[in-house]
Amino acid sequence: MLMRPALAPLVVALVTIQVGASRAAETCPALFADGRAPSLTNPKLAARTLPLCFEAYAVLHSGLARAPLYAAERLTRASVASARQVARVDAFHDEDRVPDDQRARLDDYVRSGFDRGHLAPAGDMPTGEAQAQSFSLANVVPQDRAFNRGLWAEIEESTRRLATRRGTLFVVTGSVFEGDSTTAINGRVLVPTQLFKAIYDPARTEAGAYLAPNRADGAWRAVSLDALRAVAGLDAFPGVPADVKAVAMTLPEPHAASRDGEAGRHPRAHEETWQDWLGHELARALRRAFRQVLRAIF
């Protein structure tokens, strides 16, 4: 099959991402503490959920929210060091593994006033392939712009620095949707009222979570896994002993210096224009056509 030179790199990248996603399905348990995925304790959240594995993270996607409920990662000193060498390339895309009527679309975010906020951060991804996968909308929630680029970026960087000091951390990042105060962009994608980042250090057997409102003027607080479960309806680390879940570990204070350093390496997502949307839609159509060709061949 002959390809125009301009299309060849894109086709190669698509093959790489597809193969990587297949390999990720075999290694997903390694991303969970004790090989156990987070469990939902609020039955209202369980409808239309779909677990998805990627190379460096796993998500539980909600077809009701059209967004992820959580993303799980295993951060190590080596993976953080590798991630710092990967140049960021923004390439948000729909997630074809999620049923069409249950997933977010790129146009949902156009002129929404919200950032496309990663749960598993692009800055955590140790390879270019893993980073490309992190831009799936199955890993994205609507975030207040000032919060995403400010306090939340500081929390993400502080977590990476903690992983560098400690050696290995298990991290579960997720959304909280609080009843009547929940809104939706484009009438489709629910906006989290709060976000959390739960951390478990298996060597020291201690855990805790950052919890912060999804707004510009919010302040974070440290909570225990038990307190997080009461708020989020999620047991982030089911295999962790009860006494560890009852006490919040001391979490690093997020600092503005973390945000400044991160912004210099990885500019945060901008609001999508119609030209961006058109380009993404063309790329999406090409991906689908290419997959159909692969199915016909194999």
What does the secondary structure layout of this molecule look like, with pairings?
Blueprint lengths: L7 H20 L11 E2 L8 E5 L4 E5 L4 E10 H7 L30 E5 L9 H7 L5 E5 H5 L1 H16 L1 E9 L6 E3 L3 E3 L2 E8 L4 E8 L7 E3 L1 H8 L1 E2 L6 H4 L10 H10 L8 H24 L1
Antiparallel strand pairs: 1-13, 2-3, 3-4, 4-7, 5-6, 7-10, 8-9, 10-11, 11-12
Question: What can you tell me about this protein's structure?
Answer:
There is one protein chain. The protein is an alpha+beta fold and 298 residues long. The protein has a single domain, classed as Extracellular Endonuclease, Chain A (3-Layer(aba) Sandwich). Helices cover 34% and strands 23% of the residues. The protein is built from 9 helices and 13 strands. A 7-stranded antiparallel β-sheet has the order 2-3-4-7-10-11-12. Strands 1-13 form a two-stranded antiparallel ribbon. Strands 5-6 form a two-stranded antiparallel sheet. Strand 2 (49-53) and strand 3 form a beta hairpin. Helix 1 crosses helix 3 (128-134), helix 2 (77-83) packs across helix 5 (151-166) and helix 5 packs across helix 8. The longest helix has 24 residues, at 274-297. The chain is globular and about 50 Å long. Mean pLDDT is 84; it is low at 1-26 and 257-273.
